[in-house]
Design brief:
The chain has 247 residues and is an alpha+beta fold. 29% of the residues lie in helices and 22% in strands. The chain has one domain: Gcn5-related N-acetyltransferase (GNAT) (Aminopeptidase), CATH 3.40.630.30.
Length: 247
């Protein structure tokens, strides 16, 4: 199985690969400890904790949809990874994100729209069910979940990372340099989010480091240069729930 290297380095194309290699050669900053951990869910209890966070977070804005949330078949399907943030104090779940690839089937967004040719082929991933427990630590937890998302996509050689976002959350993805899949920036009803209108946006994974560096993105050092020992992206051990097909 694939593992992250110490520099989080993945070479995808000649130009961006060379840029990423140069950027990745920069020494990581001193380790930064967090009051929580982020890891890959490895058991039924882990997934239940993720669902509890989803229900709490979605309940603040979409209470009817939140009440329908439970463990879904896709949560344990091949090609699915669930990230789980937990308090270091009492291991309470604080945040979660689900990442699905197109290795074994269509992405959730493809049940609602036909993707244009430029992002409909190759290795694709979609991030869904992003949720955090509350405002006190929610921003930092969300930032760490996105860091984990970027690094996992690099690790797995993903070409395009897709997200769907309702207003006004879509503006956050604009700041992370995601681009609209459709030129008219339309909002499309999404079947996997209760039919609510969402923008469909994409980011080219191999170009992310270079683009964030060139744009002097304020989170660049946090995502790509800061060492976070509390972020563990190794796969679940044998005997736990499996999220990737056996080699």
């Amino acid at each position: 199985m694939e593992m992250l290297d110490n520099n989080h380095e993945v070479i995808r194309t000649a130009s961006d690969g060379e840029a990423n290699a140069r950027i990745s050669s920069i020494s990581l900053q001193e380790p930064e400890r967090l009051p929580f951990t982020v890891r890959i869910a490895a058991s039924h209890d882990d997934i239940a904790g993720a669902v509890a966070v989803r229900r709490s977070a979605y309940g603040r804005h979409l209470p009817e949809f939140a009440r329908t949330m439970t463990i879904e078949d896709v949560d344990t399907a091949p090609g699915t990874t669930i990230l789980l943030a937990e308090s270091r104090f009492d291991h309470a779940p604080l945040g979660t994100m689900r990442i699905q690839t197109n290795e074994f089937g269509e992405l959730p967004v493809e049940h609602s729209v036909e993707l244009p040719s430029w992002c409909a082929s190759g290795r694709l991933a979609e991030a869904t069910r992003l949720a955090v427990m509350g405002p006190s630590s929610g921003r930092m937890v969300k930032m760490m979940l996105f860091k984990a998302l970027f690094l996992l996509c690099e690790q797995r050689g993903i070409d395009w990372l897709l997200i769907t976002a309702r207003s006004p959350i879509d503006r956050e993805y604009e700041t992370m340099l995601f681009r609209d899949v459709f030129a008219d920036e339309r909002y499309v009803p999404m079947t996997h989010v209760g039919g609510l209108p969402h923008r469909v946006m994409a980011g080219e994974v191999s170009a992310a480091r270079r683009r964030w560096s060139e744009a002097k993105h304020p989170l660049y050092r946090f995502v790509f240069e800061t060492c976070h020992p509390d972020l563990d992206l190794t796969h679940p051990v044998e005997g736990a729930i499996r999220y990737e097909a056996a080699a």
